[in-house]
Amino acid sequence: MTMKISKIENSSFRDRSGFLFYYENEIYRIINFSYKKQYEKFMNSELYQKLEEKNLIITHSEIENLDIDCDYYKIIKPEKIPFISYPYEWSFSQLKDAALLTLRIQKAAMKYGMTLKDGSAFNIQFHNGHPIFIDTLSFEIYEEGQIWKPYKQFCQHFLAPLALISKKDVRLNLLSKIFIDGIPIDLAAKLLPKTTFGNFGLMAHIHAHAKSQKHYEDKDAKIKQKTFSKRSFEGLIESLKSSIEKMTWNEDNTEWGDYYSDTNYTEKSFEEKKQFISLAIDQVKPKLVWDMGANTGVFSRLASTKGINTISYDIDPLAVEKNYLSSSQNSEQNILPLILDLTNPSSGIGWNHDERMSIMQRGPADMVFALALVHHLAISNNVPLNKLAEFFSQISKFLIIEFVPKSDSQVKRLLLTRDDIFENYDVKNFEIEFSKFFKIINSKKILDSERTIYIMENKHF
Amino acid sequence: MTKMLKQYQVFLLMIIPLMFYQFSVPDAFAYIDPATGTVIIQMIIGGLVGTGIAVKVFWYRIKSALSPSFKRNNDDEDI
After folding, report:
1. Whether the predicted interface score ipTM is above 0.85
2. Chain A interface test: which of B49, B51, B77 (most A C-beta within 10 Å)
3. Which of residues 15-74 of B touch A (CB under 8 A)?
4. Residue A438: which H helix or E strand, with range?
5. CATH assignment of A267-458?
6. B16 vs A204: CB contact, 8 Å cut-off?
7. What is the pTM of this model?
8. pLDDT tens-digit series, residues A178-222
9. Nearest-angstrom CA–CA distance, A73 and A137
10. Backbone dihedral angles phi then psi of residue A88, each to the nearest 5 degrees
11. Backbone angles phi, psi at A40, to 5 degrees
12. Any idea where the domains of chain A sit in the sequence?
């Protein structure tokens, strides 16, 4: 029976070489006849095998017997990535690793007579603890004399945000959320400090690049083919690689304080909290955990070390950076640290609001942790308890949540600089509001603290 | 050698802005637009860095020919 393609993945419509679609919860990629020659070269030149051996590219299998209602050259089934993340949710080192992977793949492709046709950061995902290239159709046959077509896109998606974080302010990475095809070069040039004129990579690829764009924007320049030798092509890639490798993020330049050791727990109560969470994980056996407000991921690791895919979100880029560096150094496979501002979470963006998914669209998670978080949302961000309960009910099947009352020193600190307009903020109202959406399975007052921790089950899943 | 490379970089920093305005557009065989500025700058950077690398490789070859004990650090990734 001919199958009708039900849902096309909206992130793949730009590329005419093929597209992604879903069928029975599995993802497939159609390859059009226009990409036949390139795909054959990619597979037969051993490039794919080499990249696969090194875990640099997503693996795929060719599907023979899928009868669907459109013309195509081939259907492939890529390995499924458990959680899709986006560059504006990555920390500095995640973006840097993704950039270097793109260049490594470009260099590898050249060895087999191929080159990348785009340089998008959205071609990279984090899988099993490291970045991986996911766009199998991004390769084209290299022809001597051709320019590196992804140059501008690579600079916009990788070099500009990395330079802005490194040389100016980590928050400028959020510009990648506004400019879906990367931060415009002229904007990056304007925002970067003048000292970057002394940095060869940034001088050349950002400042001179911006000037060149401006200089030629209204001119019909005609360029002779075969003027870009292979040596120059490789020189360009080397220059980008060297510029990115040298980039560091000096965390002293950030406004973020060192509050990681500033907790309200004794060693014993901290252990007790960990035991409660660990036991809940063993009982529920989730496949996907979201730790909202994870800090550097201490509690996330209670899940990830049990082999559970765990997304470790925090609003603080420095916490996420530390979390990623630690997971990377220890080759941890199941934890993915990401930057997320819960008061304004990633929304659906791009064409038709549908190219990049919102956080909600990527859920629900089997289990959500909201530890030492509620008071920040309720007091600092004025979110009423019923709104909090409603939000968590949309993203979690099971919820481990900690209530932090007004008598807790952290809340007292928050209330020092604002009027206490939160008359309903107490444990009784907390339980009433959350019970509208969740069944409270268990709760425990944490030793030597004012806090209570709960495990709840969503009534509607 | 490191000093030479640094001097080369300073030279590049000086020459790039100059080349902008001196860059003569070659004969027409293909028409590339709208990212003309991007194409031209990558040709300049690629050309300069590519030449730099060729000089560096040449230098290493001379050095290893003159001194058999000299071995170049091969930091190239296998793929």
Report:
1. no
2. B49
3. 16-17, 20, 25-54
4. strand A438-445
5. 3.40.50.150
6. yes
7. 0.91
8. 999 999 999 999 999 999 999 999 999 999 999 999 988 877 666
9. 13
10. -75, -5
11. -65, -40
12. 7-78, 87-253, 267-458
